[in-house]
Amino acid sequence: MNASSGILYAIITVLAWGLWIAPSQTVPLKGQQTRTFYVTLAVLLMAIVGALVQGSVSFTAAQFWLPFFGGIIWAVSGWSAFIGTSNLGMAKAFGIWAPLNIIVSIVWGMILFGEFLSTGALNLTLAALSVVVIVAGILLIVFAGGEVSTDSGGATNKVAGYLGALGAGVGFASYFVPIRISQLSMWVAMLPLAAGMFAGGCLLVLLSRSPLKLEAPSHYARVMATGILWGVGNYGALLMMERIGTGKGFTIAQLCVVVNALAGIFWFKNPPPGSKAAWKTLTGVIIATAAGAVLGNLNS
After folding, report:
1. Using CA atoms, how far apart are residues 258 and 94, in angstroms rounded to an integer?
2. Rounded distance, CA 142 to CA 284, Å?
3. C-alpha–C-alpha distance, residues 14 and 34, integer Å
4. Are 142 and 92 in contact (CB under 8 A)?
5. Cα dist. 249→3, 33, 300 in Å?
6. How far apart are the first and last CA of the chain?
7. Could you give the CA distance from residue 121 to residue 298 in angstroms, rounded to a whole number?
8. Using one digit for the tens of pLDDT, what is the confidence trace for 50-73?
9. Quick one: which of 106, 161, 251, 288 has the most CB atoms within 10 Å?
10. pTM for this entry
């Protein structure tokens, strides 16, 4: 049952996280703090609805503050990710933070939760090789070409973009650690996590004095849709990690770049279908997907 439900949660995560930034990527903003605010607001509203549907949600003060702190980590990570995508483009920024997510999450899994430490030598070797191949496949996808940055900028903007992508790589792989330590189920932890995310989003807006008003009514829906998609993927990711482990779960979650790549080719025509860049991207998709399947079937 755990294996089948883990596969279901993996599919949900990969689809939602593969598309979460796309709805709001071209919304004009004066600061990425504004996007972070609306995304975290959408996640908080989802968490409140989820808590009402679930019924009574109980946790101690310590259990509340741990996921809340994880939410603040996510808010800073989300802001960093938006800076990265706005200055480098979605593919290049994702290509930096996705492999870093894999490496950092596996390190956390080994250090804090003892994952992969007691497995056999063959499993450990296959796991290491799978991670290397997944990273290679992802890098092939994102650096295949055809991606257009939303901010041509200069050297300063590119440095900010690289720093943002690096920050997202570390942060997105770390926000779930306080949740795991709290030992709360995802359905319970989601409310304090979302509260922390929204608090972090509010703090970023206040510190930067970013305006919350958007240029068109439709922009609110598009930015909120980004938050809803992330929230759906988050439920899937954390439930998946409960079943198959932190390192493996987060590594498989990074296959969402496959969805991002396929949407770029066949929906947005970037890179154009049939082009050299498209073939490189599809090759990376096959490589990353095959390695992810191997990793997902290993025992940690």
Report:
1. 11
2. 9
3. 25
4. yes
5. 12, 29, 11
6. 17
7. 12
8. 888 877 677 788 789 999 999 999
9. 251
10. 0.82
